[in-house]
Specification:
With 421 residues, the protein is α/β, with parallel strands linked by helices. It is built from twelve helices and 24 strands. Helix content is 31%, strand content 25%.
């Protein structure tokens, strides 16, 4: 039998200082805004994760000049409307795809071909498909017709200003994509949010980035956004703040008995994943008999590690409003439950929630990452509280968001190593 590489992690306490990587969510937005601006911008403090590389390459395809220099990006935007056959490789980044599609329809009159790998071809795009049908824009998605479900999407046409009705209980990435594109069109547009808006914090990041680059969006209580046409993105120099979605792993690690000091974070950040601070505070303050309920609707990315923390508290916990985890890089709701169960957790899956009864310790064993970066990192933090080694394959998936995770983990005293099995 052919040997395969696996990551093997022995129990060890993490201790020391770590610089939190820059926010992927903020970086996506700043790179896009700078690439649409007239002039040169410098975006500092960039981590070149796979998702960020995908956005950089897509903006280059649209005509921006982007140079990497000492952890920064020097970006000269492209403001001209073009008419060409463009290919946008989104790799596995759902954010890149959903941000870029309306921008391409606002800027390129020719063919736009979107490709990608992993689960990207199965990620929902119904909102954009319906918009294209309503505006007679060519749209064909052949992703389901290839063996690996790789993304294979073609769109062609000119996006028009007008009223866009978007359901608020789906990904806010669609609204963000429209917010990037609509200021470039002639005429005023509106985005009307139907149903309750989830992931509001991600729209705050979008609105903040647009404001920094000179774009005005009138926000009417997150129910209606009014966007004037013929606006111009203004170049500028900006720094990306630390990523709370990555800091959440260390916040949970500390709750589990580790001692990590995190550097480079803004505790007044608009990032929704900063909610981990309040979640951990609730866990610390609750008595053993108290049943806790956490609402994950506005911070879905930190749910796997929050679930891990709940597994090792005394008492019952429930994490609700998390069905959107099912359309991440994997069905992250099921994956979290399944893998923590393998380690001895008392955790149950519901359609839109998890229920957890705390246990005193976890055991070692073989687990799976589902090639999902957040699963790999959650399981690595779990290893600090298991009674034996854990191991998993597909460990390189962390490059999607935190390429240096295992280097930082070991620098803090972790015992992670690659072995052949």
């Amino acid at each position: 039998m052919k040997e395969k590489e696996v990551m093997e992690i022995a129990p060890a306490k993490l201790q020391g200082k770590v610089k939190i990587p820059p926010s992927k969510s903020v970086a996506h937005r700043m790179i896009i805004c700078a690439s649409l601006a007239d002039g040169k911008s410098v975006i500092s403090n960039i981590s070149f994760s796979d998702d960020i590389k995908a956005t950089v390459e897509c903006m280059r395809a649209l005509g921006a000049t982007i140079e990497e220099k000492n952890g920064s990006l020097e970006i000269t935007g492209c403001i001209a409307t073009i008419d060409g056959k463009l290919k946008f490789d989104c790799n596995e980044s759902g954010s890149t795809l959903r941000f870029m599609l309306p921008i391409a329809l606002a800027r390129n009159l020719g063919d736009n071909i979107f490709v990608g790998r992993g689960k990207l071809g199965t990620r929902p795009l119904d909102i954009y498909e319906n918009i294209c049908k309503e505006q007679d824009i060519f749209y064909i998605n052949d992703s389901a017709n290839n063996a690996d479900n790789f993304l294979d999407l073609k769109v062609k046409g000119k996006l028009r200003s007008g009223i866009y009705k978007v359901k608020g209980n789906v990904s806010s990435q669609f609204i963000t994509g429209l917010m990037f594109a609509l200021p470039l069109l002639e005429g005023e547009s509106e985005i009307v949010v139907e149903d309750e808006l989830q992931s509001r914090s991600y729209l705050d990041l979008t609105l903040s980035a647009l404001d920094k680059f000179g774009i005005t969006v009138v926000n009417e209580n997150y129910q209606r956004f009014v966007i004037k046409g013929n606006q111009k993105y203004q170049a500028g120099n900006h720094t990306v703040e630390g990523d709370w979605s990555q800091a959440a792993f260390y916040e949970v690690a500390n709750y589990l008995g580790n001692d990590v000091e995190m550097l480079g974070l803004d505790y007044d950040s608009e990032q929704g994943d900063r909610a981990i601070v309040d979640f951990i505070k609730s866990l610390k303050e609750a008595d053993d008999e108290q049943s806790l309920v956490f609402d994950g609707s506005n911070c879905p990315d930190i749910i796997p590690e929050l679930a891990l923390a709940c597994c090792l508290r005394k008492g019952r916990s429930e994490i609700v409003n998390i069905s959107r985890l099912r359309i991440k890089e994997c069905d992250r709701l099921s994956a979290t439950v399944n893998e923590l169960k393998k380690l001895g957790a008392d955790i149950q899956e519901k359609a839109d929630a998890m229920t957890i009864n705390g246990v005193s310790e976890l055991r070692g064993g073989e687990v799976e990452t589902y090639n999902d970066h957040r699963m790999a990192m959650t399981l690595s933090i779990a290893a600090t509280r298991t009674d034996g080694k854990i191991c998993f394959s597909n460990y390189r998936c962390v490059s999607k968001s935190y390429p240096d995770f295992f280097e930082d983990y070991n620098a803090l005293g972790g015992k992670a190593k690659v072995v052949n099995k």
